[in-house]
Amino acid sequence: MRNKNFLILVSVCLVLLLAVEASAEVKKIKSIGRYTFARVRGKIPTPEVMKMLVDRYAGDIKYGFEQAGYGDVYLAFIEQLKSAQFEDTTWNVGDKVKWMLFRSQGKVKVTGELEWAGKKPVEVFAVKVKKGFKTYTFIIPKPCGNIALKDEVEEIPEAICSLKVSPAKANLNDPITVDMSGSQYAKSLKVEVYDKQGNKVATKDLTPEAARWQTKFDKPGEYLFKGVAINFADKASTNPCESKVYINYPPVAKVVPNCLNCREYVGRPLTFDASSSSDPDGEVTKVVFELTDANGQVVDSFVDTEKPFTWQKTLYKEGNYTISATAYDNDGGVSASTADSRKTIKVTRRTFFISAEGGPMLSHGSTQTYFYLRTGMFLWINPDKLSMTFTSGAGMPLAGAPWKATIMTELLGNYHFGKFYFGFGPGFTTKDQSTRKNGVDVVSQLGFTYFNNYLKMGHLFFEFRLPIGRSFNDHYKLGLGFRYNF
Length: 486
Prior knowledge:
This protein is mainly β. The chain is built from five helices and 33 strands. The model is unreliable at 1-24 (pLDDT under 50).
């Protein structure tokens, strides 16, 4: 029983195999023209006539292509046939076609694979149609108008690489754009970047749909971009596809103040020298100076576009300051901040001055007029708030005996409020007549600062000297004066 079932199974398999082989056999035809798709009547077949017939039977052709499984080729066939070259050739004995459109009982039908087995070749028109990377060769026998697909060949073109990099020269961290959108017949794209020493520093995979890439460099020098395009057969392009970019070396800024510990420089011009700034591959075209205080607030800035790149600045407030210099080159490169481009200076103001003062003085009311001249010193204890003056000199009477020259000395503490000040302290005056006494005075001044450039000062003042232990009427004095501190 078991053997019988086995024999039946084998028999069925053989029948199926024979049926498949029979269906796969190429049908041979010996005549053509009986089942015409579009017969040409009364006219010599020409390409123009054939194009007219194809246009007339476009609907039937579309239906036939779909039945043959080539519906996606239909539009390309119709469009390209309008301008296609019709080649006069033959369908030789033994040559095959994959399928053929024909008409039977008014209906469009499609054959399987056919082989021409006639006695002699058939005259045909041959037309090539391209779609994608495939070329389809159709033949149209004369004059029946049947359409047959003779062969299809896949022709994958070599990829052509296109690489554009811009800009060709840039500064550190500037955006560099890589564009491979001009590449042709590519499935994928790739770009590699090498430095001057040949080291690979970057690589990027791209696609024809996303063929642009933006990058940047944080080191100067020359960089080489190498591109390659891969076609649909995974074959790399062979045409030259390179581009170079030069990243500018930035300039180097150096600033040299004329002093770091700038004693008594308030009111005096400071000089900041950046003439030694340089550029490795170009020239420095501009230097920007910036002065900040101890809190980092910008006090002032200056832009110098002419060599030797120096700046003079006068400060009127003591303290710690930082001077910074930034250099720019002819390609727009900007220097980095370094110890050479930033310097901290300490600026102090002058506190000690030599004084000379003089003016008219009334001794003992309106009794006698004197002219006095004193010298000494002026010292800031707390600048613009508290000061001390010490002066000594002589007063000369404008009349003769019994009046005589007198010596005056005083030590005053002064309180300043804006341009005005009030001074108070002890003094000493020698006798202005032989019948009077030397003695100690209480001296007071009310003054006005006429000018002050921090290096020199001028004061106008009114002075009153009150005698101690002596007759007020015989020994008091009133004076006007001008003090010059230098």
